[in-house]
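Hi support team,

I'm opening this ticket because the web form for multi-chain structure prediction keeps timing out on my end. I have pasted the exact lines I submitted so you can reproduce it. The total is 556 residues across two entries, so I didn't expect it to be a heavy job. Is there a limit I'm missing, or should I split the entries? Thanks in advance, R.K.
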Amino acid sequence: MKRLVFLTAFLMALAPAARAQDIVTDLSQYDIELRHSFTGQELLLFGAIKRGETMAGERYDIVIVITGEKRPHMVRKKERVMGFWVNTGGKLLQGVPEYYALASTRPLLAIAPEKELARLKIGLAQQDFARQPGLEDYAAGLIRVKQGAGLYQVATEAMEIQSETLFRADFFFPANVPSGAYTASAYLFREGRLIGRSDKEIRIGKAGFERVVYSLAQNQPHLYGLMAIIIALLAGWLAGFITRPKSRLG
Amino acid sequence: MSLYFPIAEMSLNVLLLLFMGGGVGFLSGMFGIGGGFLMTPLLIFTGVPPAVAVATEANQITASSVSGALAHFRRSGIDIKMGLVLMAGGLGGSYVGAEIFSYLNSIGQVDLMISLAYVFFLGTIGSLMLWENVSPWLARKSGRRVRRRRKRHPAWIHAWPHKMKFKKSHLVVSIYLPILIGFVVGVLAAIMGVGGGFVMIPALIYILGMPGNVVVGTSLFQIVFVTAMVTFFHSVNTQTVDVVMALVLLSGGVIGAQLGARAGYKLKAEQFRTGLAVLVLVVCFKMGWDLFTTPAELYSVIEVAR
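Hello R.K., no limit was hit. The queue was backed up. Here is the completed structure from your submission:
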């Protein structure tokens, strides 16, 4: 009897883990290269949900979030000083994702209660940086700036679940997207409760010549500086050499 | 046709950059100016971060000045000794300028400083140029005789100690004067992304009293080295030199300078000088306007230590 209770408890504990398999996703691309021709990149995330015994009228919702690496950001506010608009002392916000894109089937608060969203950190309002007391204005300013740069995109009601199983969402990485390791998470909700989750990694990196230039500038700044000078001297000399006969004629 | 620039971390239209390089190059060829003081603000207006604009433009000026400096060298139009003394000052100045630059960058005030420096210098130079062109015309209109005062080589400079002989310039002046001039120009080069010819040339003529045939060559000689040092310091301190962008700007600039030089032979540059003065004042006004008007977004964001 005692064994049976234990087994039941074990199976019940296992159930949520099994449930996590109820949503499967895939991406159109796992590796995005920032090359000289990079002007932004579209990314398609698609997937399916596996339903068990569905009760009539039960509502399923999906939230998909793509986040960049989290880093501290300095946010400065301009104030008028003697007629000029001048940056005043900045505030450091911790845990700011470099990129944040969200797509969902309905407005977030219609999908799940705020407590659940806060636990899962879904939505910009639930990010650590937005919850630092006293810095709400700065966080709001940061969100506006990032949205303006196309780095934060929130589109609730942007998805539909087709035939009660299939879903897809389009994302866009703008030209100024930072390189780094990105996570694409899909959350499956039923009646306000999380019942499944799927995480995928995306790598965005400078590639080829751009990567060489960038990493040299960051890791070997002395060498980079010297090379910049030598390239400029050579290019300038060459340019003068090519154009000199013409200017003599002129 | 867009190109991704790895240091500026943004995509820009190559044709636009070539056109900007060409346009500024055209004016450079026509008037014999360096053009940095027009190119850096243009880059900033395009959306390039000011710190990247300044450092990258220093790199471009090295390239665009080297052929001119070589041409003057072949014609022996350079006072090498004077150039070296100016460079010594320039080395110190560009180091101090780059340090000021990275300090202000760390406290978020570098954009403000760049704007203020530009408003001040462009405003002063633009007004002086405009006055120089308009005042004779006004004088002629009112029937007065044009009076040109040219005060050279003020007496007070002879009071400075440690005199040095500059054979090529037929000068004996205190070594501290050219060092000081080089220093000031070095600071300006580092914080504004300019060659500094607009300060250097008047200083060599009116303060040191150098003869005209070596002024431009010596100034170019020093500009090549000072902008090279500025490139180096910014690369090390703030990693803001975008070599790829500098090369694109240079390509446009070379073509523009050729066309400008030819146009300069055919056209009366005097008439265009007023146009240049107005252009300089317009850029100055735009920079100043952006400082005074309420910005659309009060907050700015910088990622810390990537």
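A quick check on our side: The first strand of chain A starts at residue 23 and ends at 27. Let us know if the file doesn't open in your viewer.
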